[in-house]
């Protein structure tokens, strides 16, 4: 590595592996919102991150395999959000939905994130999104994340 190469320091990270089931996507949203609050990422940045992870987890349920692994990592002022699906293929019965209300997940992720990478493979798919964030200082009445 040369002197001009930069190294990102991972300040915080969390990994969660769940079965790829639609009923767990709500739990993913709650987990993400609470985690980001502990990391002092709030407001619009938190809302964007929760929506990005929601769309990525929903895609893993609909198009993926039997397990999904979520990764959130705070690296300097960038939040990396990744979802990987793995395991045997599963059959997903899509509910009857108006075509206008379906199929926008990746587009939403690309709109909200600063960068998106999708790596499909024979044993699953990994999608990662990066979002610039500014963790807020603990203010009066805010808990200190221990």
Structure characterization notes:
The protein has 146 residues and is of the alpha+beta class. It contains three helices and five strands. It has helices at residues 25-38, 43-63, 105-112, and strands at residues 10-19, 65-75, 78-89, 115-121, 124-132. A five-stranded antiparallel beta sheet has the order 1-2-3-5-4, with helices on one face. β2 (65-75) and β3 (78-89) form a beta hairpin. α1 (25-38) packs antiparallel against α2 (43-63) and α2 (43-63) runs antiparallel to α3. It is globular, with a radius of gyration of 16 Å.
Features:
146 residues, alpha+beta, 5-stranded antiparallel β-sheet, 29% helix, globular
Helix and strand topology:
Layout: E1 10-19, H1 25-38, H2 43-63, E2 65-75, E3 78-89, H3 105-112, E4 115-121, E5 124-132
Antiparallel strand pairs: 1-2, 2-3, 3-5, 4-5
Helix pairs in contact: 1-2, 2-3
Describe what is shown at a glance.
The protein has 146 residues and is of the alpha+beta class. It is built from 3 helices and 5 strands, in the order βααββαββ. The radius of gyration is 16 Å and the shape is globular.
Count of DSSP-assigned helices: 3
Described by the principal axes of the CA atoms, the overall outline is globular
What oligomeric state best describes the polypeptide chains here?
single chain
Helix content: 25-40%
Q: How would you characterize the largest beta sheet?
A: 5 strands, antiparallel
Strand element count: 5
Q: Report the uncertain regions.
A: 1-6, 96-102
Cross-sheet strand order for the largest sheet: 1-2-3-5-4
> What's the average pLDDT?
82
Q: Any idea what the radius of gyration is?
A: 16 Å
SSE series: EHHEEHEE
Structural class: alpha+beta
End-to-end Cα distance, whole Å, is 34 Å
């Amino acid at each position: 590595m040369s002197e001009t190469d930069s190294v990102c320091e991972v300040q915080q990270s969390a990994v969660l592996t769940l079965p790829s089931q639609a009923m767990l996507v709500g739990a993913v949203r709650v987990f993400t919102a609470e985690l980001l609050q502990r990391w002092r990422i709030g407001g619009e940045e938190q809302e964007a991150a929760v929506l990005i992870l929601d769309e990525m987890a929903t895609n893993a349920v609909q198009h993926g395999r039997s397990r999904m692994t979520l990764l959130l990592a705070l690296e300097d002022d960038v939040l990396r959000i990744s979802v990987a699906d793995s395991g045997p293929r599963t059959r997903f019965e899509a509910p009857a939905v108006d075509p206008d209300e379906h199929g926008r997940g990746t587009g939403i992720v690309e709109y909200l994130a600063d960068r998106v990478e999708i790596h499909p493979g024979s044993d699953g798919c990994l999608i990662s999104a990066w979002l610039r964030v500014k963790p807020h200082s603990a203010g009066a009445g805010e808990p200190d994340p221990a």
